[in-house]
UniProtKB/TrEMBL annotation:
Its EC number is 2.5.1.145. Keywords: Cell membrane, Lipoprotein, Membrane, Transferase, Transmembrane, Transmembrane helix. The chain crosses the membrane at residues 29-47, 59-79, 99-121, 218-236, 248-268. The keyword Membrane applies. HAMAP family: Lgt (MF_01147). A 1,2-diacyl-sn-glycero-3-phospho-(1'-sn-glycerol) binds at R147. PROSITE patterns: LGT. Pfam families: LGT (PF01790). This is Phosphatidylglycerol--prolipoprotein diacylglyceryl transferase. It comes from the Bacteria.
Length: 282
């Protein structure tokens, strides 16, 4: 690539024609919401199977949605608004509530969803760590599916690229400093593929090492592995999300702390003999 020349891939992923599937009066069905809904369905199905495998009633996965989904959405939006408040400072209302235009922070969603799960487990008398382990594979699968909503919104892409799998971005969605570039790293795709790998690993390890894993281990591995992949994806992204100081990406800090912190937690939990015996629940 010659210096100063725009990044244009000879072969690239096309940009979607519209983020809207169809409109009927004031109602509009958007791909962003559709993929979030599909992710929730997938997570519920996987969670139900994992709960059944652990001896619980699989219907608990569906019942828990009334606690997890509302608090997860609140946490996701709150994380985004707090870390990117400059986007809303001049005219916060109703923009802070317009989630259909994008803007949900996964770390906020996990925190809010975990609070909802804890309340549900307390209400139903279910072990929270067992529930978190059962939910973790479905959660990372939901994230893999949900990332495709970013593709249709033409957001969360990376630096300019001329790789064959680069994605074309319409001029109105390009950052000002990359106005002459046409194709960019599809970081939403990278993260989606990484999440699928983590999903496969969690499903395999929870069966292969079932007798050696402690309650909460699968969830701990989920947070650490997801954050590891998110760290590398963040090094490619160019959107102005959660910027600290003079251009440092805040999510790089958050992901590195969580990846290392939860990895250490996993190893510390296994550095001493376990007193826990695996139990099955009718």
């Amino acid at each position: 690539m010659v210096a100063g020349m725009p990044h244009t891939a000879l072969i690239s992923l096309p940009s979607p024609p519209s983020p809207v599937i169809f409109e009927a009066g004031p109602f509009a069905l958007r791909y962003y919401g559709l993929f979030i809904a599909l992710g929730i369905v997938a997570a519920t199905w996987v969670g139900s199977r994992e709960l059944s495998r652990r001896g619980y009633d699989g219907a608990l996965a569906l019942d828990s949605l009334f606690f997890i989904v509302p608090l997860g959405f609140v946490g996701a939006r709150l994380y985004h608004v707090v870390t990117d408040y400059e986007l809303y400072a001049s005219d916060p209302f109703p923009a802070v509530f317009e989630v259909w235009n994008g803007g949900l922070g996964i770390y906020g969603a996990v925190a809010g969803g975990a609070l909802g799960a804890a309340l549900f487990c307390w209400w139903r008398g279910v072990g929270f760590l067992d529930f978190a382990d059962a939910a973790a594979p479905g959660l990372i699968l939901a994230q893999a599916i949900g990332r495709w909503g970013n593709y249709f919104n033409q957001e969360l892409f990376g630096r300019p690229s001329d790789l064959p799998w680069a994605i074309r971005i319409d001029p109105e969605n390009r950052p000002a400093e990359y106005a002459d570039a046409t194709s960019f790293h599809p970081t939403f795709l990278y993260e989606s593929l990484w999440n699928l790998l983590v999903f496969a690993f969690l499903m395999w390890s929870s069966r292969r090492f079932e007798r050696r894993l402690r309650p909460g281990d699968v969830f701990v591995l989920y947070v650490s592995l997801y954050s590891l992949g998110r760290f590398f994806v963040e090094t490619l992204r160019v959107d102005p999300a959660f910027i600290i100081g003079e251009g440092f990406r805040g999510n790089l800090f958050v992901s590195s702390v969580l990846a290392i912190g939860f990895a250490l937690l996993f190893f510390l939990r296994h550095s001493r003999p376990s007193r826990h015996k695996t139990t099955r629940h009718p």
